[in-house]
Amino acid sequence: MSESEIQAMTEALMDEYKARDFYTLVIEKFGKVNPFANIKRAEEMHIDSLKNLFEKYGLQVPEDTMMDKAKELMKSVDDIKDASINNHLKAFERCAEGTMGKGGYGKGESNENCGCDEEYNEGGKGCRRGRD
Protein backbone atom coordinates (compact mmCIF):
# COMPACT_ATOMS: atom_id res chain seq x y z
CA MET A 1 0.00 0.00 0.00
CA SER A 2 1.38 3.40 -0.95
CA GLU A 3 1.99 6.26 1.46
CA SER A 4 -0.71 8.33 -0.25
CA GLU A 5 -3.23 5.51 0.24
CA ILE A 6 -2.28 5.17 3.90
CA GLN A 7 -2.58 8.95 4.29
CA ALA A 8 -6.02 8.92 2.64
CA MET A 9 -7.19 6.14 4.96
CA THR A 10 -5.83 8.01 7.98
CA GLU A 11 -7.57 11.23 6.96
CA ALA A 12 -10.82 9.34 6.38
CA LEU A 13 -10.58 7.74 9.82
CA MET A 14 -9.84 11.09 11.47
CA ASP A 15 -12.87 12.60 9.72
CA GLU A 16 -15.03 9.75 11.00
CA TYR A 17 -13.66 10.16 14.53
CA LYS A 18 -14.38 13.89 14.40
CA ALA A 19 -17.90 13.34 13.09
CA ARG A 20 -18.65 10.71 15.73
CA ASP A 21 -17.23 12.92 18.47
CA PHE A 22 -19.24 15.90 17.20
CA TYR A 23 -22.48 13.91 17.33
CA THR A 24 -21.50 12.64 20.78
CA LEU A 25 -21.37 16.28 21.91
CA VAL A 26 -24.67 17.06 20.19
CA ILE A 27 -26.30 14.13 22.00
CA GLU A 28 -24.82 15.28 25.31
CA LYS A 29 -26.38 18.68 24.71
CA PHE A 30 -29.77 17.72 23.23
CA GLY A 31 -30.31 14.13 24.35
CA LYS A 32 -30.23 10.83 22.51
CA VAL A 33 -32.67 11.79 19.78
CA ASN A 34 -32.84 11.09 16.08
CA PRO A 35 -31.33 11.86 13.72
CA PHE A 36 -28.26 12.48 15.90
CA ALA A 37 -28.25 9.05 17.54
CA ASN A 38 -28.59 7.32 14.17
CA ILE A 39 -25.85 9.41 12.63
CA LYS A 40 -23.52 8.66 15.53
CA ARG A 41 -24.14 4.93 15.06
CA ALA A 42 -23.41 5.28 11.35
CA GLU A 43 -20.14 7.09 12.12
CA GLU A 44 -19.18 4.25 14.47
CA MET A 45 -19.82 1.73 11.69
CA HIS A 46 -17.63 3.78 9.33
CA ILE A 47 -14.89 3.83 11.97
CA ASP A 48 -15.11 0.06 12.40
CA SER A 49 -14.90 -0.45 8.62
CA LEU A 50 -11.81 1.72 8.36
CA LYS A 51 -10.18 0.05 11.37
CA ASN A 52 -10.76 -3.33 9.71
CA LEU A 53 -9.06 -2.02 6.59
CA PHE A 54 -6.03 -0.89 8.61
CA GLU A 55 -5.84 -4.29 10.26
CA LYS A 56 -6.26 -6.11 6.94
CA TYR A 57 -3.12 -4.40 5.64
CA GLY A 58 -1.21 -4.83 8.90
CA LEU A 59 -1.21 -1.12 9.67
CA GLN A 60 -1.45 0.44 13.10
CA VAL A 61 -4.87 2.01 13.67
CA PRO A 62 -4.45 5.73 14.43
CA GLU A 63 -5.71 6.90 17.81
CA ASP A 64 -8.80 9.03 18.12
CA THR A 65 -7.44 12.49 18.86
CA MET A 66 -10.35 14.40 17.36
CA MET A 67 -12.51 15.24 20.39
CA ASP A 68 -10.81 18.63 20.77
CA LYS A 69 -11.57 19.37 17.11
CA ALA A 70 -15.17 18.31 17.64
CA LYS A 71 -15.43 20.59 20.69
CA GLU A 72 -14.00 23.44 18.63
CA LEU A 73 -16.54 22.77 15.89
CA MET A 74 -19.39 22.65 18.43
CA LYS A 75 -18.24 25.98 19.89
CA SER A 76 -18.24 27.50 16.40
CA VAL A 77 -21.77 26.24 15.80
CA ASP A 78 -22.87 27.69 19.15
CA ASP A 79 -21.17 31.03 18.39
CA ILE A 80 -22.89 31.27 15.01
CA LYS A 81 -26.25 30.39 16.56
CA ASP A 82 -25.76 33.01 19.29
CA ALA A 83 -24.81 35.66 16.73
CA SER A 84 -27.90 34.83 14.70
CA ILE A 85 -30.19 35.06 17.71
CA ASN A 86 -28.58 38.08 19.35
CA ASN A 87 -27.70 40.12 16.27
CA HIS A 88 -29.26 38.97 13.03
CA LEU A 89 -32.71 38.24 14.44
CA LYS A 90 -32.88 41.72 15.97
CA ALA A 91 -31.93 43.27 12.63
CA PHE A 92 -34.66 41.28 10.85
CA GLU A 93 -37.19 42.31 13.49
CA ARG A 94 -36.25 45.99 13.07
CA CYS A 95 -36.60 45.63 9.33
CA ALA A 96 -40.03 44.02 9.70
CA GLU A 97 -41.08 46.83 12.03
CA GLY A 98 -39.94 49.41 9.51
CA THR A 99 -37.39 50.89 11.90
CA MET A 100 -34.28 49.66 10.12
CA GLY A 101 -31.75 52.40 9.66
CA LYS A 102 -33.40 54.92 11.93
CA GLY A 103 -31.28 54.24 14.98
CA GLY A 104 -27.81 53.82 13.57
CA TYR A 105 -28.09 50.05 13.53
CA GLY A 106 -25.91 48.11 11.18
CA LYS A 107 -23.49 49.22 8.52
CA GLY A 108 -23.88 49.80 4.86
CA GLU A 109 -27.26 51.47 5.05
CA SER A 110 -28.08 53.77 2.19
CA ASN A 111 -28.37 57.48 2.81
CA GLU A 112 -32.04 57.24 1.84
CA ASN A 113 -33.10 55.43 4.98
CA CYS A 114 -30.47 56.01 7.63
CA GLY A 115 -31.26 59.58 8.61
CA CYS A 116 -27.62 60.64 8.38
CA ASP A 117 -26.63 64.23 8.01
CA GLU A 118 -23.99 65.39 5.52
CA GLU A 119 -21.21 64.59 7.99
CA TYR A 120 -21.81 60.89 7.40
CA ASN A 121 -23.07 61.02 3.83
CA GLU A 122 -20.04 61.13 1.55
CA GLY A 123 -21.46 63.11 -1.35
CA GLY A 124 -24.49 60.87 -1.79
CA LYS A 125 -22.45 57.66 -1.82
CA GLY A 126 -24.33 56.24 1.13
CA CYS A 127 -24.13 56.06 4.86
CA ARG A 128 -20.69 55.81 6.43
CA ARG A 129 -21.94 55.68 10.03
CA GLY A 130 -20.04 53.13 12.05
CA ARG A 131 -17.25 52.93 9.48
CA ASP A 132 -15.37 56.07 10.51
Strand content: under 5%
Give the number of helices. 3
Separation of termini? Answer: 59 Å
Low-confidence stretches: 108-113
Let me know the largest β-sheet: none
Shape: elongated
Number of strands: 0
- Give, in order, the helices and strands: HHH
Percentage of residues assigned to helices = 55-70%
Rounded to an integer in angstroms, the radius of gyration calculated over CA atoms is: 25 Å
State mean pLDDT (0 to 100 scale): 78
Describe the protein.
By secondary structure, the chain is mainly alpha-helical. The chain has a domain at 3-73. 61% of the residues lie in helices and 0% in strands. It contains three helices and no strands. The protein has helices at residues 3-30, 36-56, 67-97. α1 (3-30) runs antiparallel to α2 and α1 (3-30) packs across α3. The longest helix is centred in the middle third of the chain and has 31 residues, at 67-97. It starts with a helix and ends in a 35-residue tail after the last helix. Residues 108-113 have low confidence and may be disordered.
What is the gist of this entry?
By secondary structure, the protein is mostly helical.
Structural key phrases:
single chain, 132 residues, mainly alpha, 61% helix
Which helices and strands, and how do they pair?
Elements: H1 3-30, H2 36-56, H3 67-97
Helix pairs in contact: 1-2, 1-3
